[in-house]
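Aim 2 progress update. The chain analyzed this quarter is reproduced below.
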Amino acid sequence: MFEVNTRIKELRNVLNLSQTDFGSKVGLAPSSLSDIENNKCSVNKRNIVAICSTFNVSVEWLVKGKR
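Predicted structure tokens:
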């Protein structure tokens, strides 16, 4: 799951959003997002779905890196 965490951070940076702004759009506290991005915890399925639907990215890309 480490790659998912890296892609979440990559997406947030591409969108030029702070952890606070990104997290508020998908229902994550900034501290939780920080833990995910720094691989201190894994991202759950609900968060993956929220990120993909909110930012219009595919689950395949977020989870597996496939475009």
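Residues 39 and 63 are 14 Å apart (CA to CA). DSSP finds five helices and no strands in the chain. These observations will guide the mutagenesis experiments scheduled for the next reporting period.
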